[in-house]
Design goal:
TolA/TonB C-terminal domain, 13-stranded antiparallel β-sheet, mainly beta, outer membrane lipoprotein receptor (LolB), chain A, 2 domains
């Protein structure tokens, strides 16, 4: 008997802040303080430039470079090169413009961006439990939390000496354990930022980032020009993600089930203002029959569209369908 697990990844999203648990206010305050120290993207008065080199596991390890030139939350420019892949993003007010030489952004590139922006989500976490432990000779204070990117066993650990965030660990269906690690912190304009950031999936390096340069700069307004042929997306504070309404599971192909074949099919697609699916693309393959079943089924999915206030807006998601045998 076969079974399916679906994981819908909402991209370019934000999370709502949650109030602290009255039972552990000291732990909550410690986590909030650590998150605020790392967050380069909130409450800054001067522009900065961030340059990082990275290695991403995109079928094979791929070397790359990311440059971010930032003036404000709604005024920035970013360029990413990973092997032959190139993407440029420009944020101007409530519009995000993306130009890339593929029809989609690889998952590892989204994960890279999440790593670089890691300080933006910790103040949205609510501490539920705390414990102390030691790893590789380092004493850690670890918090079981809720309210972030996942609801399945998320844990944040701080270095007990420096109070810097050391790791963020969580589970994703069907069987992935994900860990982000941050190390070699340095001071920058009243913030603390790590020189090395890693994402591990089931203990294997998926993305490794090294900060080459972080410096204040004069922002060049000429960067804020939409790249030719770019994709435009509306952005807003408190944007509500698209909500699945009608999302039947693909059928487990009989031939695959009989031959005890399993796999993961990953789809990138656009949710239009009316909640229908457009621009559907296969970005991660299983078997031909699994991929075909997934593509045909997801074309008929229906959503409540993403919302900016009362206005429906176009949004992008990725869906992973895991075919597993009982």
């Amino acid at each position: 008997m076969g079974k399916l697990t679906r994981c819908i990844l909402l991209l370019f999203g934000s999370y709502s802040a949650l109030a602290a648990d009255d039972k552990i206010p000291a732990a909550q305050e410690l986590l909030n303080s650590a998150g605020q120290r790392t967050n380069l993207f909130h409450g800054r008065g001067s522009p900065f430039e961030l340059d990082v080199s990275f290695t991403a596991q995109i079928r094979v390890p791929v070397q790359g470079h990311l440059t971010l030139k930032w003036q404000a939350q709604d005024r920035w420019w970013r360029n990413i090169v990973a092997g032959d892949f190139v993407q440029t993003d420009v944020r101007m007010g409530d519009r995000l413009y993306t130009s890339r030489n593929l029809g989609f952004t690889p998952i590892r590139i989204h994960e890279l961006i999440g790593l670089v922006e890691f300080g933006t989500t910790f103040d949205n976490l609510r501490v539920k439990k705390e414990k102390q432990r030691s790893e590789d000779g380092v004493d850690l204070l670890c918090f079981r939390v809720e309210g972030g990117k996942t609801t399945k066993n998320p844990e944040v650990c701080l270095n007990s000496v420096s109070d810097d965030i050391a790791s963020y660990d969580w589970q994703e269906p069907p069987d992935e354990r994900r860990t982000e690690r941050y190390s070699d912190y340095f001071d920058f304009e009243g913030h603390r930022f790590p020189r090395k950031l890693q994402l591990l999936v089931n203990g294997i390096n998926a993305v490794t980032v090294n900060v080459d340069r972080l410096t204040t700069t004069v922002f060049d307004d000429s960067l804020l020009v939409p790249p030719k042929g770019s994709i435009e997306r509306r952005q807003c504070a408190g944007m509500q993600h698209a909500i699945p309404v009608k999302t039947p599971d693909p059928a487990y192909p009989k031939s695959a089930s009989q031959n005890k074949m399993m796999g993961d099919t990953t789809i990138a697609m656009t949710i239009l203002e009316d909640g229908t699916v457009g621009d559907i693309q296969l970005i991660g393959r299983a078997t031909q029959s699994m991929d075909d079943a997934t593509l045909q089924t997801l074309k008929g999915w229906k959503f409540k569209p993403a919302m900016c206030g009362t206005e429906p807006v176009v949004s992008d998601i990725q869906v992973e369908v895991s075919f597993r045998l009982d």
